[in-house]
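Workshop exercise sheet. Pairs work together: one partner reads the sequence aloud, the other fills in the structure field after running the prediction. Swap roles for the next sheet.
Pair: D.N. / O.F.
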Amino acid sequence: MDAKITKQRLGLLLSYDWIKIIGICAAAVLVWALLFTTMATRATNGQSFEMYLYPGVSLSSSVNVETLHTRDENDVLSYDVLNFSSMTLDSSAMDTILSAHFAAGQGDVFFAPDTEPTKDEDGNITAYNGLDDFLGGYFSNALWLDPDLTVKEHTIESGGEKKGSFSNYFYDCAQYLNRFYNGDWKSGTLDEATVRANFDERMKGDKRYKNEAQREAGRQKEIVRIQNLRDAFENVLGWVSSDDENSPVRIKTTELSVILESGGEAQTVEWNLSFDLSNIDHLTDFIGYPGGENGTRIADNLCMVVLNTGSSGEEDLRYEPFMLLDYLVTTYDGAAA
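Structure field:
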């Protein structure tokens, strides 16, 4: 049988079977893409850092998201944060988006300006704005902030009865770091064996670490992650504990009128649920909102809420917001530069 390939036979093949050839090529590409997607490491909620911005607030156009996060080496977040995203919310869709995302366990931080509420002619509040607007509807999705590391939680009471409690974010982070610093995160020595064992346990089944060389490289990154977190936590704790009114990061106390029980009356409650960033000198190089003269961006009274969502269940990745705060101050505050 003559099976020699000639120009004539090749031409006939392409003339009659070109659709089959294209189909086979397309199928091969789809199969390859499917295999790649299936085998790739999928980011958990904790490994995805999601930043939400109140309507009008946005990242500066000069900010390159890649300088905030890359997969292996980054300037801000730890190596184990695989995805970073920011979203400026639309006022008409904010509640819909936040409700859906929080229910799915998404969200790490929320930025909003602390602006005055809208009042009627008699001085009665008709609408909250900015930070108050967010906390009025989502205070249960915010973490309590208290630099007193002996305070484990803050309890909300009404009529002498406990109506809820908030875990203290600072207390939780100190306890987490104590695990790796022999019970004393501030003065203790890093126990690398504990860090390595913790890494091996939580990375079981992670497709990034298939052999010992990859696992050892990961352990080294984990050691750096813990060290960086400890340094960032110490810096933020120092700033918010300072009596200096010009400290770059402070804790904001917000007063809101809320109903704590079904059928109950509204009462004024003080909440320590946000960081005040308004003293960071050049914060508008990173984030801000319109309102200045001639359309300039301002960062006055800009606050950051640490969100209490599903990612908070991943203990090792709960404390990335301390890393972000440390970055904002060391990068954009004139006094710290």
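Discussion prompt: The first strand starts at residue 48 and ends at 53. What would you look at next?
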